[in-house]
Amino acid sequence: MRCLVLIIVMILIPLTGCTTPIKKSSRVVRTVSTSADQPAPPRPSRPALPPATTPPERDAVPVLTSLPSRSAIVQSAARLVGARTITSQGKRIAYDCAGVARAVYLEHGIDLYRATNRERNANGVRLIHNHVDQHGVLHRGPDVMPGDLVFFDNTWDFNGDGEANDPLTHIGIIEEVEPDGTVVFISRVASAIERYRMNLEQPHIHRTGDGRVLNDYIRRKHLTDPADTARLTGELFAFYGNLLSPREDLPGDDRIVQTQDRQDIPNPSVSTILRP
Asked: How many CB atoms lie within 10 A of CB 265?
């Protein structure tokens, strides 16, 4: 009997051991549920990055996407009437006829001094002529409109030789064309920026019998000038310059295909060109 009891005890000991609860590990194992009822816990968010920034452009040049209106050009020119100095984009512009034209167009994104065919020692009027020749059209009418440019020759003795051989010496911006064809333009001739008149149908008449001015004096009278020296606007007119119309719409009948021979004459008194 004692042997039988001992055998039974030896069999029950390992069975009891299998039923002993297993101790849980101190390491906790987390599982991720993909069930819709138990959504996965959100991942820790990272610190938000600051929004991307683009470095500011330095000295950005405005891009001209369309031609300025004629009324805008005329209004800018009219504001300069009576001015004693000219500034544009924070820079001082030469106080002369070319400076007036350049400042007005600069306000609307066009630099009249910028042309590919730059000439050494060229004055401002010649620089503007080159720009119009490249980007617009030079013509002698009759289709002239406000905002166009008007060029003159021989308004002063550019080369100092006493002869009337000085092309491209003056420029103005046309403000309006009166019913009788008289062109009113804005320019600096003497001591201030003013309005001047030109009538190409009667170029040799300064004033009519009723006192109306047709052509202003644009060249000063000097004792050394010959008696027949031209001094009126209509007498010294060279041509018009149109930059404000699409090229295909520009007048063609009186378009200047090839201008007269214009020699490059150094002029030490020409104002320094300012670049915007």
From this structure: 16
Cβ neighbours for 251, distance < 8 A, ≥ 6 positions apart: 137, 139, 141, 143, 242
Alpha-carbon distance 110 to 122, whole Å?
19
CB count within 10 Å of CB 189 equals 19
Residue 185 phi/psi, 5-degree rounding, is -130, 160
The model carries a pTM of: 0.69
3-class SS at 106? helix
Q: CA-CA distance, 169 to 262, in Å (whole number)?
A: 12
Query: Per-residue pLDDT tens for 75-99?
Result: 999 999 999 999 887 889 999 999 9
Residue 123 · residue 168 · CB < 8 Å: yes
Kindly give the parts of the chain with pLDDT less than 70: 1-65, 116-118, 247-276
Domains of the chain: 70-249 (3.90.1720)
Model confidence pLDDT, tens digit, residues 25-49: 333 333 333 333 444 445 544 444 4
Instruction: Please give the Cα distance from 276 to 33 (Å, whole number).
Output: 67
Q: Which two tokens stand for residue 150?
A: 């008007």
The neighbouring-strand residues paired with 137 are 242
Q: Identify the CA nearest to 142 among candidates 258, 252, 260.
A: 252
Residue spans of alpha helices (H) in the chain: 2-18, 70-79, 97-106, 124-135, 233-236
